[in-house]
Design a protein that fits this description.
binds pyridoxal-5'-phosphate, single chain, 13 helices, Aspartate Aminotransferase, domain 1
Length: 401
């Protein structure tokens, strides 16, 4: 990729630094070709291998490959029997998927405010519990783990199911345990910007055999046998519909990517961590830029899915959107993770959420944006992005009156 200057340059890059780019190699390409030549391209042996590899990596008893994390979150709620009139406690600092699936099963998303790490604040969970509460859905924001000990303790005491939205958190560790081995159900995403990708895809993991069985049925029309068992093996292709389900099965073409991405995951996280440190060092003295807290407790591993910054708009003469616009003008791709859900029109109209309810989430929602962070970038790219931030800040720092 052509860039003007690698380090601390004030010159604009000649070409856009993409916000994200998947790291796919020949291994993935050859595995996809192998599937195509084998004649088996939908759910089959490669999905099974991907499930086994991920299951063992995170330390769970069951893993079910799905079309997306959204599908996994949807099925987790149905597997837990959550529906009309129920409430699920979650965070508003998340992607649409988390709250949308709660709403789509007929339940109410009950938001609580976040802490300095941008994860759900466990201290506020207990006060949000009512007789209708059925589950807590924490989101490991950007790949930094939620305080799972406290969340699990509340859930066990109040008889609630814990469904972890781990879309950002494959490879995240909490107290020496991998995310995927703690909550009742955990869901990962393999969307192209995630730490590993299958193009699109997701995986639900659980230790609970009945949640696993329900998810397996629901992912494929409520039918016990998937296509591999119906057409691939020497069995009579008979089947029974136990209840109406969905069409959420991952294909072998996608799992072909996942098998090799899993092998590279730890190296990817190492590279992401190295680049996150460079960002932290490059931006530490910029007082107009705030970084989330991410304390490195023993046994904690941040998977660094995202590197987010908060533009201190009280010290700047521009707002966050203008800041993002100037980043793009400097040819640096940026992301917005996330505008608060409770400020979205549907959630305000339907559930009566309004500005002022979750002050910390709103503070973050007004200031946050994401810088490029992926293994395929160079150290020079990271420094270019940090330099662009510094230059925009220098241009727009509010002069004291
Ligand atoms: C926090 C969070 N949850 C869920 C999802 C949904 O993941 P998917 O795109 O695999 O459905 C995303 C996707 O970006 C996400 O960021």
């Amino acid at each position: 990729m052509a860039i003007t200057k690698a380090s601390n340059s004030s010159a604009r890059r000649k070409e856009l630094l993409p916000f994200s780019r998947p790291s796919l190699g020949n291994e993935e390409i050859e595995e996809v070709v192998h599937s195509m030549k084998s004649g088996w391209i939908t759910t089959g042996p490669k999905c099974h291998q991907f499930e086994e590899d991920l299951r063992k990596y995170v330390g769970a008893s069951h893993a079910i490959a799905l079309t997306s994390a959204t599908a996994g979150l949807h099925l987790s709620l149905l597997a837990a029997g959550i529906g009309h009139g129920d409430e699920v406690i979650t965070t508003s600092m998340t992607f649409a998927a988390t709250a949308n699936v709660i709403t789509l099963v007929g339940a109410r998303p009950v938001f609580v405010d976040i802490g300095g790490d941008l994860n759900i604040n466990p201290e506020l969970i207990e006060t949000a519990i009512t007789t209708r509460t059925k589950a807590i859905m924490p989101v490991h924001f950007a790949g930094y783990p939620c305080d799972m000990d406290r969340i699990m303790a509340i859930a066990r005491r109040r008889n609630l199911v814990v469904i972890e939205d781990a879309a950002h958190a494959i490879g995240t560790e909490y107290n020496g345990r991998r995310i995927g081995s703690i909550g009742d159900m955990t869901i990962f995403s393999f969307h192209p910007i995630k730490n590993i990708t299958t193009g699109e895809g997701g995986m639900l993991v659980t230790d609970n055999p009945s949640f696993a069985e329900k998810t397996r049925l629901l992912k494929f029309h409520g039918i016990q046998k998937d296509a591999w068992k119906r057409y691939g093996a020497k069995e009579i292709p008979q089947y029974e519909i136990l209840f109406p389900g969905f069409k959420y099965n991952l294909t072998d073409l996608q799992a072909a990517l996942g098998i090799h991405q899993m092998k590279k995951l730890d190296d990817f996280i190492e590279q992401r961590t190295r680049y996150a440190r460079i960002y932290q060092e490059s931006l530490r003295d910029v007082k107009e830029i705030m970084l989330p807290e991410a304390p490195a407790h023993k046994g904690t591993r941040h998977a660094w899915h995202l590197f987010v910054v908060l533009a201190d708009i009280d010290r700047l003469a521009i707002d966050r959107d203008r800041f993002m616009g100037e980043m793009l003008e400097a040819n640096i791709g940026i992301g917005l993770h996330f505008p608060a859900i409770h400020l979205q029109p549907y959630y305000q109209k339907t559930f009566g959420y309004a500005r002022g309810m979750f002050p910390r989430t709103e503070f973050v929602s007004d200031r946050i944006f994401s810088l490029p962070l992926y293994p395929g970038m160079s150290e020079g790219d990271v420094r270019d992005a940090a330099s662009a931030v510094r230059e925009i800040v220098a241009r727009h720092t509010r002069q004291p009156k």
